[in-house]
Amino acid sequence: RLEEERRKEEERLRREEEERKRQEEAEQRRKEEEEAKAAAKLEEELRLKAASDVEAAAELAALEAAKAAKEAERMSATGPPVSAQAVAAEEEEHAKKVEEIKEHAKEVVKEKAEREEKEAILQLQQADVMVHVAEEKGDDLHAAVAAQGGIAGVVAMSANHAASAEVQANFVGLMRDLCVSDEIAEEITAAGGVERIIDAAHAHYDVPDVMMEVADAIRNLTASDNIAAKVGEARGIEVLIDAATRHVTNEE
Asked: By mean pLDDT, which of 16-20, 107-111, 184-188 is the weakest?
């Protein structure tokens, strides 16, 4: 009888151990499935962003390299031994792929920036033409920049393309023409337009087209005593003096 009880106890312990292992394996599979789903979701999100985001492209490349490394590790654990040379070659290939993805993303971002810059220049030029047409007809000048989100939208457009001398020249020229209206001149000032004009001058002090537009815009804006004070606070007069010194040989 004691032997029977011992066997029953051993059987019970064996079943408990098997059940524990099954539960552990099931839990491990569940975790792996969740990790795989999360990784797949992250990969999809990165793929969507990678077309225009250098960092996302780099993350995607790193993720793909990590996946490949994990798969290689799994295969080496279950398959024949992998030589150190083969591992090194695979790592080199992954690194090359990462760099290729990064370079491609940079090119995409560059092309996108160039396209947006051209669009901004075109919009500013079209708005300036509309200003002249509206002025000749005696219409409200606000309509000329309505499509760009008004004065604030144009100022923001300038800020978004601060590094482009051509955008800044067109922006400042538009501000120059708009501020013939005292009301709009005040709006330009309230929207930070004076500071943007001065910033454009600082960034592109060596570009005659920008500096000529800046000089004309400041001349028009300072017709108002309040705005003249604002220009002075932003050190706009110093910018003009510096520009005159730098471009002393420019007859225009």
From this structure: 107-111
Q: Return the closest-CA partner of residue 91 out of 59, 127, 66, 63.
A: 66
Q: How confident is the model at residue 249 (pLDDT cuts 50, 70, 90)?
A: low
Cα(87)–Cα(72) distance, integer angstroms = 9
pLDDT in tens, 84-112: 676 677 777 777 776 777 777 777 778 88
**How much is the pTM?**
0.60
Task: State residue 106 phi and psi, 5-degree precision.
Answer: -60, -40
The token pair that represents 225 in the structure block: 């005593």
Q: How is the chain split into domains, by residue range?
A: 102-251
Check: CB of residue 171 under 8 Å from CB of residue 200. Answer: yes
CA distance 221 to 194: 8
In angstroms, rounded to a whole number, what is the distance separating the alpha carbons of residues 191 and 122?
A: 22
pLDDT of residue 168: 94
For residue 157, with 0-12 CB atoms within 10 Å meaning exposed, 13-18 middle and 19 or more buried, which class applies?
buried
CB proximity list for 31: less than 8 A, separation 6 or greater: none
206 by Cβ neighbours in 10 Å (0-12 / 13-18 / 19+) ranks as exposed
Could you give the CA distance from residue 203 to residue 111 in angstroms, rounded to a whole number? 22
